[in-house]
Amino acid sequence: MLSLAFYSCSNSDSDNNASPENEFTGADDEVKLMTVDPGHFHAALVQKYGYEQVDSVVHVYAPEGKDLELHLDRIEQYNNREENPTNWVEEVYTGPDFFEKMLEERPGNVVVLSGNNAKKTQYIKQSVDAGLNVLADKPMVIKPEKFPMLKEALAQAQENDVLLYDIMTERFEITTLLQRKLSQYSDVFGTLEKGTPENPAITKESVHYFFKYVSGNPLIRPGWFFDVDQQGEAIVDVSTHLVDMILWETFPGEGIDTTQVEVVEAERWATEMTPGEFEKVTEMEPYPDYLEEDLNDENNLEVYSNGSFVFKVNGVHGKVSVEWGYESSEGGDTHYSIMRGSKANLVIRQGEEEDYVPTLYVEPVNDNSGDQYEAALQDAIDEIAEEYPGLSLNETSNGWQVAIPDEHRVGHEAHFAQVTEQYLQYLVDGEIPEWERKNMLTKYYLTTQAYKKSR
User: Fold this and answer.
1) In degrees rounded to 5, what are phi and psi of residue 15?
2) Residue 30: which of 49, 14, 47, 51 has the closest Cα?
3) What's the pTM?
């Protein structure tokens, strides 16, 4: 069973909950989480596994309601599962002043933010100003007018010696990792093309669905998820992952400044949802008032959950594209990516031919096939296999498929633990690398600039 302790806004005495010293010093038992308004299931996924250096008591500050109930239900599921159960204890404060109460009491030293994005940038800034570390789900900003606040927060975090970091799970997907690694072998990939707006050097496309299963259960989404003023449009939401991967893959270990990038073109379009579909995915009926302006003449909801844009980074053209459907007939969320090199294209496909499993292909260009090329590719795979054992090559009509053992395919939900472990290591180190901090700011500069250009 999940151990819970609730207290509400009527309890004004906080002396027993406050801690005079919340600063992280690197000791194994000093990370204490404070989860704020966990309206998105990603907040629970941070706790899907336990961590030796994280206190099992997590303080939750949130308004009462369905979002909080679903979050606590997920934590309880993790605690009660048969295999590798967790032992989280949730200390819950509910009340309209939940955020102010967190800042007042400060029973932890790391704020976890994953929920309604309307106030997220503000929460980030206030937490950092208060000297608290922050682990935030994407996106950290959804409107261009809030970008300066995020920029200030990143600068203030450095000044206050606290770590502000966002949850970039897709870097840990094995095909993305291998695509990045192979692009650094000049005998295999050559050099990255510059590309054009019509034919970018690197493309990332992501397809998602509103109704799906998480941790084995149907995902119930809050009504505000479909309000772009609270969740954010595709260009500033899921695109954050795709922009992050492009910067991370094309210029590994190199921080990209906002002066080195430019949005070339951008567009947005809506996904239509019927009243029945909305009720199924939210367990709400009818539409809440804040969605009324997004209803069409057929009383269907139009959600601007789709978008794409092309940008340049150091002269290299990249493209990101995000689409949302209602429900997949099979396969679930999918990802497509291509990096175009002078000797080969590195392509990730996840379609029917791949049984909807992300699969990496090496497809030579400019007559770079042949025994010598194959030997160079095999040498690269053998070297990478020292870190990821069991990798091999299967020949295809266009080149080779990289065969990846199942042990390296840990799944999207497990990536949250990998990001959290990376963040914990940064806490031990006492800093986030400069390239990470630069890229964090630049990717949100790009998404908010694309938002403006798509109008």
Assistant:
1) -60, -35
2) 51
3) 0.91
Phi/psi of residue 303, each to 5°? -110, 125
For the stretch 184-236, pLDDT in tens is 999 999 999 999 999 999 999 999 999 988 778 888 999 999 999 999 999 99
* CB of 225 closer than 8 Å to CB of 231: yes
Whether the CB-CB separation of 317 and 201 falls below 8 Å is answered with yes
| DSSP of 108-152 | -SEEEE-S-STTHHHHHHHHHHTT-EEEEPSPS--SGGGHHHHHH
For 410, phi then psi, to 5°, come to -85, -20
Backbone angles phi, psi at 253, to 5 degrees: 75, 5
Structural contact between residues 307 and 239, judged by C-beta atoms closer than 8 angstroms: yes
Q: What are phi and psi of 398, to 5 degrees?
A: -110, 0
Report pLDDT digits (tens) over 57-68: 999 999 999 999
In DSSP terms, which residues pair with 16 in a beta bridge? none
Amino acid identity, residue 428? V
Q: Does the bond joining 148 to the residue before it have cis omega, within 30 degrees of 0?
A: no
Helix (H) or strand (E) holding 76: helix 66-80
3-state SS, residue 443: helix
- Contact by Cβ (8 Å): 363, 345: yes
pLDDT tens track for 368-421: 888 999 999 999 999 999 999 999 999 999 999 999 999 999 988 899 999 999
**CA trace torsion 33, 34, 39, 40 (10° rounding):** -20
What is the rounded CA–CA span in Å between residue 183 and residue 178?
A: 8
- One-letter identity of residue 310: V
Query: What Cα–Cα distance (Å) separates residue 442 from each residue in 108, 160, 344, 352?
Result: 29, 21, 28, 35
Phi, psi dihedrals of residue 320, rounded to the nearest 5°? -125, 145
* DSSP label at residue 273: E
C-alpha pair distances (Å), 172 with each of 41, 110, 195, 418: 19, 22, 26, 7
